[in-house]
Amino acid sequence: MPDKKQVKELMVPVEDYPRVYDTDTLQDCIKTLKKSIEVGKGYRSLLVFSKTRKVAGEEELVGILTVRDILNAIKRNTMLYSEKELYSMSWALFFRHEPLKIVVSNKAGD
After folding, report:
1. Cα 3 from chain centroid (whole Å)
2. In the predicted model, is pLDDT for residue 74 greater than 50?
3. In a 10 Å sphere around its CB, with 0-12 CB exposed, 13-18 middle and 19+ buried, how is residue 92 labelled?
4. CA dihedral in degrees (33, 34, 36, 40; nearest 10)?
5. Backbone phi, then psi, for 77, in 5-degree steps?
6. Up-side HSE of residue 34: CA atoms within 13 Å toward CB?
7. Nearest to 32 by CA among 72, 70, 63
8. Is residue 90 pLDDT above 60, yes or no?
9. Alpha carbon distance 25, 109 (integer Å)
10. pTM, rounded to two decimals
11. Which among 13, 9, 18 has a CA at the least distance from the CA of 64?
12. How many CB atoms lie within 10 A of CB 65?
Protein backbone atom coordinates (compact mmCIF):
# COMPACT_ATOMS: atom_id res chain seq x y z
CA MET A 1 0.00 0.00 0.00
CA PRO A 2 1.42 3.41 -0.98
CA ASP A 3 2.36 5.89 1.70
CA LYS A 4 -0.25 8.46 2.56
CA LYS A 5 0.84 11.88 1.42
CA GLN A 6 -0.40 15.16 2.71
CA VAL A 7 -1.66 17.81 0.32
CA LYS A 8 1.24 20.10 1.19
CA GLU A 9 3.60 17.48 -0.28
CA LEU A 10 1.73 17.50 -3.62
CA MET A 11 0.73 21.11 -4.09
CA VAL A 12 2.52 23.86 -5.97
CA PRO A 13 3.34 26.73 -3.60
CA VAL A 14 1.58 30.00 -4.47
CA GLU A 15 4.93 31.75 -4.82
CA ASP A 16 5.91 29.40 -7.66
CA TYR A 17 2.89 30.13 -9.85
CA PRO A 18 3.24 32.66 -12.66
CA ARG A 19 1.30 35.84 -11.98
CA VAL A 20 -0.40 38.53 -14.04
CA TYR A 21 -2.59 41.52 -13.27
CA ASP A 22 -6.26 42.01 -14.06
CA THR A 23 -5.28 44.95 -16.27
CA ASP A 24 -2.87 42.91 -18.44
CA THR A 25 -3.74 41.90 -21.99
CA LEU A 26 -4.34 38.38 -23.14
CA GLN A 27 -1.04 38.65 -25.01
CA ASP A 28 0.73 39.45 -21.72
CA CYS A 29 -0.85 36.36 -20.17
CA ILE A 30 0.22 34.13 -23.04
CA LYS A 31 3.79 35.46 -22.81
CA THR A 32 3.86 34.78 -19.07
CA LEU A 33 2.65 31.20 -19.58
CA LYS A 34 5.22 30.73 -22.33
CA LYS A 35 8.00 31.91 -20.00
CA SER A 36 6.92 29.37 -17.38
CA ILE A 37 7.23 26.63 -20.00
CA GLU A 38 10.67 27.88 -21.07
CA VAL A 39 12.00 27.67 -17.50
CA GLY A 40 10.67 24.14 -17.15
CA LYS A 41 7.62 24.83 -14.98
CA GLY A 42 4.93 24.50 -17.64
CA TYR A 43 1.98 25.63 -15.54
CA ARG A 44 -1.45 25.67 -17.16
CA SER A 45 -2.82 28.49 -15.07
CA LEU A 46 -1.91 31.98 -13.91
CA LEU A 47 -2.69 33.75 -10.68
CA VAL A 48 -4.40 37.08 -11.37
CA PHE A 49 -3.75 39.96 -8.98
CA SER A 50 -5.13 43.47 -8.69
CA LYS A 51 -2.77 46.44 -8.54
CA THR A 52 -5.46 48.59 -6.94
CA ARG A 53 -7.10 46.23 -4.45
CA LYS A 54 -5.03 45.39 -1.41
CA VAL A 55 -5.34 42.93 1.47
CA ALA A 56 -3.12 43.73 4.45
CA GLY A 57 -1.01 45.91 2.16
CA GLU A 58 -0.49 43.12 -0.41
CA GLU A 59 -1.95 42.96 -3.91
CA GLU A 60 -5.22 41.03 -3.77
CA LEU A 61 -5.54 37.71 -5.58
CA VAL A 62 -8.66 38.25 -7.70
CA GLY A 63 -8.72 35.09 -9.81
CA ILE A 64 -7.11 32.28 -11.71
CA LEU A 65 -6.74 32.27 -15.48
CA THR A 66 -6.30 28.89 -17.17
CA VAL A 67 -5.16 27.89 -20.64
CA ARG A 68 -8.77 26.87 -21.32
CA ASP A 69 -9.96 30.37 -20.34
CA ILE A 70 -7.46 31.88 -22.78
CA LEU A 71 -8.50 29.56 -25.62
CA ASN A 72 -12.19 30.29 -24.95
CA ALA A 73 -11.53 34.05 -25.00
CA ILE A 74 -9.71 33.76 -28.30
CA LYS A 75 -12.48 31.61 -29.72
CA ARG A 76 -15.18 34.09 -28.61
CA ASN A 77 -13.27 37.01 -30.11
CA THR A 78 -12.75 35.30 -33.46
CA MET A 79 -16.27 34.14 -34.23
CA LEU A 80 -17.22 34.86 -37.82
CA TYR A 81 -20.64 36.14 -38.87
CA SER A 82 -22.07 35.68 -42.32
CA GLU A 83 -25.50 37.30 -42.63
CA LYS A 84 -27.60 35.41 -40.05
CA GLU A 85 -25.23 32.53 -39.38
CA LEU A 86 -22.47 32.30 -36.83
CA TYR A 87 -19.37 30.31 -37.72
CA SER A 88 -16.89 29.17 -35.15
CA MET A 89 -13.28 29.79 -36.01
CA SER A 90 -11.12 27.03 -37.32
CA TRP A 91 -8.38 25.57 -35.11
CA ALA A 92 -6.02 26.39 -37.95
CA LEU A 93 -6.23 30.01 -36.82
CA PHE A 94 -4.25 29.12 -33.68
CA PHE A 95 -1.29 28.24 -35.87
CA ARG A 96 -1.23 31.56 -37.75
CA HIS A 97 0.38 34.42 -35.89
CA GLU A 98 -1.06 37.51 -37.59
CA PRO A 99 -4.83 36.93 -37.13
CA LEU A 100 -4.35 36.31 -33.42
CA LYS A 101 -2.41 39.51 -32.81
CA ILE A 102 -5.55 41.67 -32.64
CA VAL A 103 -7.48 39.20 -30.50
CA VAL A 104 -4.82 38.78 -27.82
CA SER A 105 -4.21 42.51 -27.56
CA ASN A 106 -7.50 42.84 -25.68
CA LYS A 107 -7.57 43.11 -21.91
CA ALA A 108 -7.62 39.72 -20.15
CA GLY A 109 -11.13 40.27 -18.79
CA ASP A 110 -12.69 41.30 -22.11
Report:
1. 34
2. yes
3. exposed
4. 140
5. -80, -5
6. 7
7. 70
8. no
9. 8
10. 0.65
11. 18
12. 22
Instruction: State the number of CA atoms in the 13 A half-sphere of 41 facing the CB.
Output: 16
3-class DSSP string for the chain: CCCCCCHHHHCCCHHHCCEEECCCEHHHHHHHHHHHHHCCCCCCEEEEEEEEEEECCEEEEEEEEEHHHHHHHHHHHCCEEECCEEECCCHHHHHCHHHHHHHHCCECCC
Q: How many CB atoms lie under 10 A from the CB of residue 94? A: 14
pLDDT computed for residue 109 by the predictor = 47
CA–CA distance, 73 with 61 (Å, rounded to integer): 21
Residues 54 and 40 sit within 8 Å (Cβ to Cβ):
no
